[in-house]
Amino acid sequence: MDALIAAAARALAAGDPLGALRRVALRDDAPALALRGIAMAQLDDYPRARELLRRAARAFGPREAVARARCVLAEAEVALASRDLAWPEHALETAQATLAAHGDRANAAHARYLAIRRLLLLGRIDEAARALDRLDAARSPPPLRAIHELLQAGIAMRRVQARAAHAALERATEAARRAGIPALEAEVEGAARLLAAPAARRVAQGVEQTLRLHEVEALLASTALVVDACRHAVHAGGSVLPLATRPVLFALVRALGEAWPHDAPRDALIRRAFRTGYIDATHRARLRVEIGRLRALLRQVAEVRATRHGFVLLPRHATGVVVLARPVEEPHAAVLALLADGEAWSSSALALALGTSQRTVQRALDALAAAGKVQPLGRGRARRWSTPPLPGLATMLLLPAPLPGD
User: What is the CATH number of domain 3-196?
Assistant: First the structure.
């Protein structure tokens, strides 16, 4: 390795992409192309970065397997940063195996962490946690230790474990400080701000209250029956009744929860559950059928009793009924929640993260663009979507994970 390449590599490791480019900007040999690609990625020019990294991988000879694997690893990191979640996993797995076989343990571990970060973005929280548990960060260098703790914090936040997330962020802060990389320190600070931001709203007896994550955790552990409108479930006495696949039943139980301790009128329940303004005898008959299904589902935790004007929710053991709602609610709130991280997402990546079809996401993006809430960047297959971060709201923390098989 010549002196200029070594100096550029040190500059990139210290988070100085301009300093690296000053040394190798006019060179087209394989190591210089790779360093230029990494520098462009640090400057957020992701298309140019991927082009340079691919050129570098082709330029390295057949005996330079480790160098090619490092280029693949860098391209995978660029794909993750640009929210290209459909980037081929097998390429990263092959690169990780090559790096491990040649003794490059640090980069092999970094490849594993990239795969875990992708799982977390896709909402596959349990799979990400199992993969992270298999990695031991105790002997890792400070940058990898900081990434490990950031992932621990991210998993804890998505699981509504505020205390564990706070402890992991403290460890990440110390590791990032020791690493001395400004971008890594900024990422840890951003995660800490997310943990401190409002994560949900508590709705009870007509009164709304903004909650942070530790307050959401306390609410879910309380003796109240919680209708969780963030992840479409009912929590009571430590048990969780998922309703993500039963939208009509969830709409009914949420309406009953918001009306508690009073009853909810039949017509209001019909409008809420069936989304219609025209009500006739067929709707009332259907309401009776759906209420019967809801009674059967909730029979261990609550009773749904008919009243003169409608129905009322009566918890069996809980001290009260509370609705936990997202901090921002609108028809396409889940899409906005993902875009609120400030990154530019493709419609295919949004569809993967939400567990829905790309066409559904495209319709939502068109509606949001017409309302001026998101903006497209680029054209055709290169089009990305972004929106300014929603100030002071942790909108992404309580997103429902994609259902198995989606």
Answer: 1.25.40.10
Q: Could you give the CA distance from residue 354 to residue 347 in angstroms, rounded to a whole number?
A: 10
How many residues are there in the chain? 406
Rounded Cα distance, 104 and 98, in Å:
9
What's the gap between Cα 278 and its chain centre? 38
What number of H helices and E strands is found in the chain? 18, 11
Full 3-state SS string of 218-284: HHHCCCCEEEECCCCEEEECCEEEECCCCHHHHHHHHHHHHHCCCCEEHHHHHHHHHCCCCCCHHHH
The CATH number assigned to the domain with range 200-325 reads: 1.10.10.10
Burial class (CB in 10 A: 0-12, 13-18, 19+), 65: middle
Q: What are phi and psi of 123, to 5 degrees?
A: 80, 10
Contacts of 370 (CB under 8 A, 6+ apart): none
Q: Look at strands 375-377 and 384-386 and give their pairing.
A: antiparallel
For the entire predicted model, the pTM comes to 0.81
Domains 3-196 and 333-386 alike in fold: no
Q: What is the pLDDT of residues 246-260, one digit of tens each?
A: 999 999 999 999 999
Q: Above 80 in pLDDT, residue 92?
A: yes
User: With contact defined as beta carbons under 8 Å apart, do 382 and 339 qualify?
Assistant: no
CATH of domain 333-386: 1.10.10.10
DSSP per residue, 306-318: E-SSEEEEEESS-
Q: Nearest-5° angle of CA 350, CA 75, CA 168? A: 70
